[in-house]
């Protein structure tokens, strides 16, 4: 089910080996040569070397044959991104695009329950995407990472980008990253559930979670009134929050109440790598949204989950 991303960072296909046409050589014209008085002693010829399969085929067919390309080693394989187009998935696709890392997108259709497949659970035991497999991990050995925040930190350490090495600056990034993981993401997700999926009669829950989203966006607005980005400089904290603000903007009026958040959202959305990461797999989600049966199946799979044996 793997699908290679179509962005500039996708792994390039190997170019075909060039095949040269054999060039016919003209035979030298015959000349009369006087026979020597005495024949020179014959020299022992060296044992013939065994021709390669390619040369043997060329000798038989008269055509040059290209050697088969070698299979990619684990260190040459791109990162595998197990993904579905949601705010949590966008965090990692945006980071991969920003870092210009070659990667392959492996769709995990959470509406069909593919997150419960044994193969996926081996790399993400919490049956949640995103997850990655980096075939060139620590010690040049493969490593899998689940949980979007952990993936962002791992890629930041791996590349040295958007996650500063300076401890004071890194603490600031971690503060706002975990603020999103513990607050903005879960609260916006709950508000979205009760506003769009829950049955009538949940007025308390709707107000509870939309009020909390309003409060959190207010905290963010105050911070962005003092800094261009959440941790001072553009970082994984901004990538983590951006997709969730897209969702929160359907619940609160950014332009009227939170102008700093609106300007930040537009500033980040204008980055080409962010746009590519945001668009990744969009057609997959659109297909599901346009299919009433798929939507009903998604509700059955996603809601009311309990522990599995």
Walkthrough of the structure:
There is one protein chain. By secondary structure, the protein is of the alpha+beta class. The protein folds into two domains: 71-162 and 289-309, Glutaredoxin, CATH 3.40.30.10; 164-270, Glutathione S-transferase Yfyf (Class Pi), Chain A, domain 2 (Up-down Bundle). It is built from twelve helices and five strands. A five-stranded mixed beta sheet has the order 1-3-2-4-5, covered by helices on one side. Helix 2 (87-98) packs parallel to helix 4 (148-159) and helix 6 (203-224) crosses helix 9 (259-269). The longest helix is centred in the middle third of the chain and has 30 residues, at 167-196.
CATH topology name of the largest domain = Glutaredoxin
Please estimate the helix content: 40-55%
Count of spatially separate domains: 2
- Report strand order across the widest sheet: 1-3-2-4-5
Q: In terms of structural class, how would the helical and strand content be classed?
A: alpha+beta
* Low-confidence region ranges: 6-68
Average pLDDT figure: 83
The major sheet is characterized as: 5 strands, mixed
Shape: globular
Radius of gyration: 30 Å
CATH-scheme architecture of the largest domain: 3-Layer(aba) Sandwich
CATH evolutionary superfamily of the largest domain: Glutaredoxin
Element order, helices and strands? EHEHEHEEHHHHHHHHH
Put simply, the count of helices is 12
Q: Strand-residue fraction?
A: 5-15%
Straight-line N-to-C gap: 26 Å
Regarding CATH, which class of the largest domain? Alpha Beta
Q: Give the tally of β-strands.
A: 5
């Amino acid at each position: 089910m793997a699908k290679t991303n179509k962005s500039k960072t996708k792994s390039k296909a190997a170019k075909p080996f060039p095949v040269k046409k054999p060039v016919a050589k003209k035979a030298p014209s015959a000349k009369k040569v006087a026979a020597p008085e005495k024949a020179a002693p014959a020299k022992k010829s060296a044992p013939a070397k065994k021709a390669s399969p390619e040369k043997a085929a060329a000798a038989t067919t008269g055509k040059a044959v290209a050697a088969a390309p070698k299979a990619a080693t684990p260190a040459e394989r791109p990162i595998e991104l197990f993904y579905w187009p949601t705010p949590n998935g966008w965090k990692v696709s945006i980071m991969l695009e920003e870092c210009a890392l070659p990667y392959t997108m492996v769709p995990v259709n959470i509406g069909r329950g593919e997150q419960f497949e044994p193969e996926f659970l081996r790399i993400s035991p919490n049956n949640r995407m995103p997850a990655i497999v980096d075939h060139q991990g620590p010690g040049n050995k493969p490593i899998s990472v689940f949980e979007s925040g952990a993936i962002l930190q791992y890629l930041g350490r791996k590349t040295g980008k958007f996650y500063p090495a300076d401890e004071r600056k890194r603490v600031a990034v971690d503060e706002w990253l975990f603020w999103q993981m513990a607050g903005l993401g879960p609260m916006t997700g709950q508000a979205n559930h009760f506003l769009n999926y829950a049955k009538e009669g949940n007025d308390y829950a709707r107000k509870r979670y939309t009020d909390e989203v309003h409060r959190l966006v207010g905290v963010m607005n105050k911070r962005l009134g003092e800094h261009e980005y959440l941790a001072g400089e553009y970082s994984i904290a901004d990538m983590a929050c951006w997709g969730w603000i897209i969702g929160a903007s359907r619940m609160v009026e950014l332009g009227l109440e939170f102008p700093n958040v609106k300007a930040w959202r537009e500033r980040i959305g204008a980055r080409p790598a962010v746009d590519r990461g945001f668009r990744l797999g969009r057609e997959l989600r659109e297909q599901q949204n346009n299919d009433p049966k798929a939507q009903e199946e998604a509700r059955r799979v996603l809601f009311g989950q309990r522990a599995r044996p």
